[in-house]
């Protein structure tokens, strides 16, 4: 038989094109993937006996498993990050080239081990504590000698004021609400007084203890609601990948202590719900924690009160929640009453005005963008900072996209297998807020809402994503390909969320000086000027200056910083105007300003944060050119103003001759500019 030499017949039509073939193949893959996932959802328990933490160690084997080796690997990751901080002087690209691999080396090996069903419960706990404390060291290494993050310096002012005056509820003009929520400062000052430590040393001990408590509480909470040691480990690692865990929630700020209190209460309540006996002492512990939370951080308190209310409502609708109805209702009502009483009946507490003004401005900006009358913020670039490189953009978008894509599958898994659990349903409802908060990334003023809400929402998000991961890839289907896929996805979430947190131009990491870039703007020149003011001018002088020098002179200089919030009038116009006119002098007199601190470096670049003095100053977030040097140096031409300090970058002016009562009749001699 001879073979035909005629060419094979090709069917004409659109289905024969490569594009349609690719679409058809993709559709087949998606159908098979969904079918496989739905089939695996029928499995009531995807975790095997060992992964649930029920297996004991074999005779002669260590309970720690691979922990010593992985501890060495994570330590090498921290060392690589420290090298990146040192090399940051050569540019952001050099910093990033070492920083991101250092994070991965700290995070990924332990993550891969935790995905495996092999580790015992003790090893999993040790690995989680290892990664969490290594992340804390990464934050501490940014400046191991003093507080430099902007929020940390604000609370430093409150702590020092309490330590100096021996009284609570003092004055903090930079963050007026801080003295009314002094939980962190009370614990820090107690440790400082007992141990003879500085505020910085005691504060870091408190932060380390809070971080340790949070990791253990999260793990035990997830273990309680999933009944699996492996799932609890994965969920805790996912939580560590949220935008605020690595840096913001490891600084000297009230949220850093409030979050561990919340996770501890969640574990106590989940444990109480699972126990058959009524251990009243557990509820008493939850009540004491709720009181501590009320005086520690307002926003964390309000979020947790809302969560308790949602949990209470869900328990009323679910038969399985019958046992928790009364204690939940009592806690939710008590938390609400405590919060309202503390906010509205504590004399001078400005929390309502503080929060309402911020959210009102943020929603107003978002509304103007939706209506078309406002301009959305460019996500990967900003004034005073270069645009993010392509790989950074992909990582940041990937982190949000992977979270958004995983949540529907996780919610489906939750509904199919865990809808009988009241707490699981409440956590599922909570994750629905995540897509809403991401909308605020397009605003300038409300951009912090997206990142700060992640610290709360990721408690629920980590649970939902873990359900998806462990149901779709149960232990019996694990292999190196699946483990690599999961580790890569969570690594993208970690790196992308970290880049979202460090801010424009890596302002949260070490590097060359940048104008109004928070951490990047804290350097020896400003610190020395602030310390000079304390030693030569004395403390508590009324000082007006830019955002960065406000924190420096308020902490290292111990000066009274005059802000727009305190005097209810804008001070930025005094610095922006080309000459010192009578209106500017009237502002200085009404505010009682004694010294003006002028940083001449402001004229070299646009501010990375979008403003020089206050977030609502004229042109904030939309500045087109730096503030002029002529405007900053105009004070030298006024005879009544005395220049008391000048190091070439920072100038301190004594304007007392203009602002004291005796000078109100003076004629203001100002040469034409």
Q: For the largest beta sheet, what order do the strands appear in spatially?
A: 2-1-3-5-4
Radius of gyration: 28 Å
The major β-sheet equals: 5 strands, mixed
Note the run of SSEs as H and E: HHHHHHHHHHHHHHHHHHHEHEHHHEHEEH
How many helices? The count is: 25
Helix- and strand-based class? mainly alpha
3D shape:
globular
Distance between the ends? 104 Å
Task: Give a structural overview.
This protein is mostly helical. The protein folds into 2 domains: 67-506, no CATH class; 518-663, Rossmann fold. It is 59% helix and 3% strand. It contains 25 helices and 5 strands. It has helices spanning 18-40, 67-87, 92-115, 121-140, 150-165, 183-195, 199-226, 229-240, 254-274, 280-294, 298-317, 325-344, 351-371, 390-418, 422-430, 433-438, 447-472, 480-502, 524-537, 547-555, 564-567, 572-576, 582-591, 629-633, 656-659; strands spanning 542-544, 560-561, 595-599, 642-646, 650-654. The chain has a 5-stranded mixed sheet, covered by helices on one side. Strand 1, helix 20 and strand 2 form a beta-alpha-beta unit. Helix 7 (199-226) packs parallel to helix 9. It is globular and about 85 Å long. The termini are far apart. Mean pLDDT is 87; it is low at 9-15 and 662-667.
């Amino acid at each position: 038989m001879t073979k035909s030499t005629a060419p094979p017949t090709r069917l004409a039509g659109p289905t024969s094109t490569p594009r349609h073939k690719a679409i058809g193949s993709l559709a087949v893959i998606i159908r098979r993937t969904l079918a496989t996932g739905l089939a695996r959802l029928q499995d009531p328990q995807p975790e095997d006996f060992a992964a649930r933490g029920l297996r004991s160690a074999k005779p002669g084997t260590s309970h720690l498993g691979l922990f010593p080796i992985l501890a060495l690997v994570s330590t090498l990751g921290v060392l690589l990050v420290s090298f990146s901080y040192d090399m940051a002087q050569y540019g952001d690209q050099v910093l990033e080239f070492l920083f991101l691999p250092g994070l991965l080396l700290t995070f990924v090996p332990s993550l891969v081990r935790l995905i495996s069903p092999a580790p015992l419960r003790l090893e999993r706990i040790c690995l989680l504590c290892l990664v969490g404390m290594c992340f804390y060291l990464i934050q501490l290494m940014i400046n191991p000698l003093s507080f430099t993050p902007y929020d940390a310096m604000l609370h430093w002012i409150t702590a020092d004021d309490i330590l100096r005056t021996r009284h609570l509820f003092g004055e903090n003009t930079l963050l007026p609400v801080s003295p009314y929520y002094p939980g962190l400062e009370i614990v820090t000052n107690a440790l400082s007084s007992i141990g003879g430590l500085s505020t910085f040393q005691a504060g870091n001990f408190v932060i380390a203890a809070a971080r340790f408590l949070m990791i253990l509480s999260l793990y035990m909470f997830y273990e309680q609601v999933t009944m699996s040691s492996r799932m609890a480990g994965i969920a805790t690692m996912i939580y560590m990948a949220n935008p605020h865990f690595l840096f913001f929630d490891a600084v000297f700020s009230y949220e850093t202590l409030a979050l561990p209190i919340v996770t501890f209460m969640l574990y106590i309540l989940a444990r109480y719900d699972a126990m058959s006996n009524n251990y009243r002492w557990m509820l008493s512990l939850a009540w004491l924690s709720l009181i501590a939370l009320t005086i520690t951080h307002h926003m964390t308190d309000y979020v947790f009160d809302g969560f308790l209310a949602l949990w209470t409502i869900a328990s009323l609708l679910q038969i399985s929640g019958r046992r928790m109805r009364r204690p939940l209702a009592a806690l939710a009502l008590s938390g609400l009453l405590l919060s309202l009483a503390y906010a509205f009946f504590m004399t001078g507490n400005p929390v309502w005005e503080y929060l309402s003004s911020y959210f009102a401005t943020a929603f107003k900006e978002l509304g103007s963008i939706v209506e078309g009358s406002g301009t959305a913020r460019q996500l990967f670039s900003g004034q005073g900072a270069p645009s993010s490189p392509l790989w950074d953009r992909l990582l940041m978008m990937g982190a949000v996209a992977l979270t958004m894509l995983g949540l529907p599958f996780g919610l489906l898994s939750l509904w199919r297998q865990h809808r009988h659990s009241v707490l699981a349903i409440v956590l599922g409802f909570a994750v629905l807020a995540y897509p809403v908060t991401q909308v605020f990334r397009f605003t300038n003023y409300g951009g912090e809402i997206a990142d700060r809400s992640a610290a709360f929402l990721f408690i629920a998000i980590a649970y939902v994503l873990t359900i998806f991961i462990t149901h779709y890839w149960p232990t019996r289907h694990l292999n190196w390909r699946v483990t690599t896929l999961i580790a890569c996805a969570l690594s993208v979430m970690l790196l992308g969320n970290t880049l979202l947190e460090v801010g424009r131009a890596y302002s949260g990491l070490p590097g060359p000086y940048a104008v109004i870039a928070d951490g990047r703007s804290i350097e020896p020149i400003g610190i020395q000027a602030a310390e000079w003011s304390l030693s030569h001018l004395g403390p508590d002088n009324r000082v007006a200056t830019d955002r960065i020098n406000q924190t420096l002179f308020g902490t290292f200089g111990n000066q009274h910083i005059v802000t727009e919030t305190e005097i209810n009038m804008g001070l930025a116009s005094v610095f922006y105007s080309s000459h010192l006119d009578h209106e500017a002098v009237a502002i200085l007199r009404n505010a009682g300003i004694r010294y003006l601190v002028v940083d001449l470096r402001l004229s070299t670049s646009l501010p990375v944060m979008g403003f020089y003095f206050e977030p609502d100053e004229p042109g904030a977030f939309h500045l087109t050119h730096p503030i002029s040097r002529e405007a900053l140096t105009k004070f030298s031409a006024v005879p009544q103003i005395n220049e008391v300090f000048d190091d070439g970058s920072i100038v301190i002016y004594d304007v007392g001759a203009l602002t004291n009562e005796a000078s109100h009749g003076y004629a203001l001699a100002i040469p034409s500019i």
